[in-house]
């Protein structure tokens, strides 16, 4: 029987845990985590503010979590984390699980909230949010 040993020189790379739906299992990515950019307390405050159904407001969320005060580079890093499929865009299906990218136990956005979020950010009306559109919405 072969024995598996952990190498003493093996180091874990920085990973962020991102909830992958519908299976609810965690998917790890070699990306910076949102909590390395925003404080855990600010994220918690923003999540708590929109716990009730139909209470999510993107601009208020970004203000409460502190993202609207970050640099354009940090906003683009967060965009990269939220772009779950690495397509270069945040699509409607990804927006539904937006809050769970910040906190795995958070609720799913309703269809109405998701469509509202998309309409607020999708300047070119292509049905998805690009990095520049995301940055413009967050920093405006």
What would you say this structure looks like, in words?
Belongs to the parvalbumin family. In muscle, parvalbumin is thought to be involved in relaxation after contraction. It binds two calcium ions. This is Parvalbumin. The chain is mainly alpha-helical and 140 residues long. It has a single domain, classed as Orthogonal Bundle (Recoverin, domain 1). The protein is 41% helix and 10% strand. The protein has seven helices and four strands, in the order ββαααβαααβα. The protein has helices at residues 40-49, 58-65, 72-82, 92-95, 98-102, 111-121, 131-139; strands spanning 16-19, 26-29, 89-91, 128-130. The chain has a two-stranded antiparallel ribbon with strand order 1-2. A hairpin with a 6-residue loop joins β1 (16-19) and β2. α3 packs across α7 (131-139). The radius of gyration is 16 Å and the shape is globular.
């Amino acid at each position: 029987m072969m024995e598996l040993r952990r190498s003493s020189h093996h180091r874990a790379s920085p990973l962020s845990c991102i909830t992958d739906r519908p299976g609810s299992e965690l998917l790890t990515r070699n990306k910076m985590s949102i909590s390395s950019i925003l404080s855990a307390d600010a994220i918690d405050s923003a999540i708590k503010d929109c716990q009730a159904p139909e209470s999510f407001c993107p601009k208020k969320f970004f203000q409460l979590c502190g993202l609207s005060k970050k640099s354009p580079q940090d906003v683009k890093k967060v965009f990269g984390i939220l772009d779950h499929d690495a397509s270069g865009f945040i699509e409607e299906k990804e927006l539904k699980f937006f809050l769970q990218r910040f906190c795995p136990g958070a609720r799913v956005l309703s269809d109405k909230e998701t469509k509202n979020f998309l309409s607020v950010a999708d300047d070119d009306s292509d049905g998805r949010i690009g990095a520049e559109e995301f940055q413009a919405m967050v920093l405006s």
